[in-house]
């Protein structure tokens, strides 16, 4: 038995070391504590049984390390039901105080010969058995609840539950080898926590309160971790970002690093993903009480009128031009600019302004002016296509956002915009000759979306002062950027 115990101690200590090397996974710190406790348990048993520890340390630590192991097993099991469950302060205080009280009681009584004659020790032994049995029992209940979810944890959890039941049974009948059962359970727990992410990815409940919703909806707990989502929402984000969110993801992992849930009850424009696959949506947040969330409110996020930035129609579109509204355009620009700063990818914008548009309104009427504006916007949308998105910035001014485009590429496209926009427009029985001035600027890392548009706007006004009907850039030397 001694050889098996020492081998088990090596295994348990190995689990602790491996857990510490995977600190990127939630729950490995507690798993390391459990590994050390079980390893100490494995070593103490043969020392105490064969009375080869003259210091009495093994007699003092025997019950405390068992208590610590049981506490760790319970918390890990509980976090399999409530992802990243924070240990309440009263419970944490109990977990710290109980082993400390045991040590203070057992150290003066570390002579094994005194134990059989000490009624106080018998009482402590009964309390210890009840305490550990309660923790292991609660752990089994939590694991049984988690097994209701049909995920990768079902089979390992069944085996772990059997080991826990065996742990209780062997301990109750005082059969030697209970510490070996604990070591086997520890190895299985390592696989659950590190490989399956048992402690930070809890699947949505079988009966979901979001299930009846026909909109794109996400529910996050008070830690900002995804609890559940409608299937349409998962597909939407997967198409925009290339990865479907998973339960336990943070807001940044689920929706993107630039997404902020804001204050519950607020509305706004949300941009998911980057580049031409990005999706814009009208977003609304509200308070939400996730299942088994320890009474703390989370946030539910619903997305309305979600569409691709290069698409057409929907509430994110201007009714006259079919381009993105200013609010949507600014949200897209902010998101793309932050992404460009983080990734170093190119981003360019073009500010397009109709030349002498006020004269058209004054001479031919506002209906003719709106018709010409709509026709020019339609041509911009056709030329840009899937290379970017077009938004109405205000009045007769529009902004073209070109993710991944260098200054040279953007200038070439701007020249095509000038040519396409300059074709005649027939409106209100009249032939109109539109003309546009275009200014192009490329994003500089750290530059805000506002400053980027301001640079392109300045380039556009330079063109306009030169007579209009052309495209210009914010940089003087276009040749150095053409191949970027």
Describe this structure in words.
The chain is an alpha+beta fold and 484 residues long. The chain folds into 3 domains: 2-195; 216-308, Beta-Lactamase, CATH 3.30.450; 326-480, Alpha-Beta Plaits (2-Layer Sandwich), CATH 3.30.70. 50% of the residues lie in helices and 15% in strands. The protein has 15 helices and 12 strands. The strands form 3 sheets. Strands 2-1-5-4-3 form a 5-stranded antiparallel sheet. Helix 2 (28-49) packs antiparallel against helix 3 and helix 3 packs antiparallel against helix 4. The longest helix is centred in the N-terminal third of the chain and has 28 residues, at 119-146. The N and C termini lie far apart (70 Å).
Give the number of helices.
15
Q: Encode the helix/strand succession as letters.
A: HHHHHHHHEEHHEEEHEHHEEHEEEHE
Strand content: 15-25%
Would you tell me the overall average pLDDT? 80
Strand neighbour order, sheet with most strands: 2-1-5-4-3
**Class per helix and strand makeup:** alpha+beta
Question: How would you sum up the major sheet?
Answer: 5 strands, antiparallel
- The dominant shape is rod-shaped
Q: Uncertain spans, ≥5 residues at pLDDT below 50?
A: 204-214, 476-484
Number of domains: 3
Helix share of residues? 40-55%
| Number of strand segments | 12
User: N-to-C terminal Cα separation, in Å?
Assistant: 70 Å
Layout of helices and strands:
Blueprint: H1 2-20, H2 28-49, H3 57-78, H4 89-106, H5 112-115, H6 119-146, H7 154-172, H8 178-195, E1 216-220, E2 226-229, H9 231-241, H10 251-255, E3 267-272, E4 279-288, E5 298-308, H11 326-343, E6 347-354, H12 357-364, H13 366-384, E7 389-394, E8 397-403, H14 407-421, E9 425-427, E10 430-432, E11 436-442, H15 449-465, E12 471-473
Parallel strand pairs: 11-12
Antiparallel strand pairs: 1-2, 1-5, 3-4, 4-5, 6-8, 6-11, 7-8, 9-10
């Amino acid at each position: 038995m001694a050889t098996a115990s020492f081998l088990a101690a090596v295994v348990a200590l190995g689990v602790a070391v491996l857990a510490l090397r995977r600190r990127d996974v939630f729950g490995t710190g507690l798993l390391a504590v459990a590994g050390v406790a079980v390893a100490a348990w494995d070593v103490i048993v043969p020392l105490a049984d064969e009375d080869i520890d003259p210091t009495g340390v093994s007699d003092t630590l025997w019950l405390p390390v068992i208590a610590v192991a049981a506490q760790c097993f319970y918390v890990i099991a509980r976090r399999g039901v409530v992802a990243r469950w924070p240990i309440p302060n009263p419970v944490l205080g109990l977990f710290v105080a109980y082993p400390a009280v045991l040590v203070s009681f057992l150290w003066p009584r570390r002579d094994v010969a005194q134990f059989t004659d000490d009624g106080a020790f018998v009482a402590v032994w009964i309390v210890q058995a009840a305490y550990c049995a309660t923790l292991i029992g609660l752990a089994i209940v939590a694991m049984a609840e988690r097994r209701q979810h049909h995920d990768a944890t079902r089979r390992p959890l069944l085996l772990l539950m059997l080991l826990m039941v065996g742990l209780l049974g062997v301990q109750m009948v005082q059969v030697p080898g209970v510490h070996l059962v604990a070591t086997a359970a520890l190895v299985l727990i390592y696989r659950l926590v590190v490989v399956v992410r048992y402690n930070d990815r809890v699947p949505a409940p079988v009966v979901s309160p979001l299930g009846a919703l026909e909109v794109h909806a996400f529910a996050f707990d008070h830690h900002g971790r995804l609890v559940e989502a409608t299937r349409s929402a998962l597909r939407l984000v997967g198409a925009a970002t290339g990865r479907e969110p998973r339960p336990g993801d943070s807001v940044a992992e689920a929706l993107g690093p630039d997404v902020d849930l804001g204050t519950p009850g607020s509305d706004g424009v949300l941009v998911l993903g980057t580049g031409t696959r990005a999706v814009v949506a009208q977003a609304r947040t509200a308070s939400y009480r996730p299942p088994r969330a320890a009474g703390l409110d989370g946030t539910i996020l619903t997305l309305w009128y979600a569409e691709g930035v290069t698409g057409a129609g929907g509430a994110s579109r201007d009714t006259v031009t079919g381009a993105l509204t200013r609010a949507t355009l600014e949200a897209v620009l902010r998101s793309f600019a932050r992404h460009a700063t983080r990734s170093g990818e190119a981003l360019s914008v073009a500010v397009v302004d109709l030349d002498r548009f006020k004269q058209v309104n004054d001479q031919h009427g506002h209906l003719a002016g709106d018709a010409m504006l709509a026709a020019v916007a339609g041509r911009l949308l056709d030329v840009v296509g899937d290379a970017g998105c077009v938004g109405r910035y205000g009045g007769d001014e529009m902004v073209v956002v070109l993710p991944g485009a260098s200054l040279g590429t953007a200038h070439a496209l701007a020249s095509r915009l000038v040519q396409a926009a300059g074709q005649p427009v027939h409106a209100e029985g009249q032939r109109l000759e539109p003309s546009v001035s275009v200014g192009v600027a490329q994003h500089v890392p750290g530059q805000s979306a506002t400053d980027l548009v301001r640079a392109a706007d300045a380039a556009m006004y330079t063109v306009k002062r030169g007579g209009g009907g052309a495209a210009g850039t914010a940089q003087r030397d276009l040749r150095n950027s053409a191949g970027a």
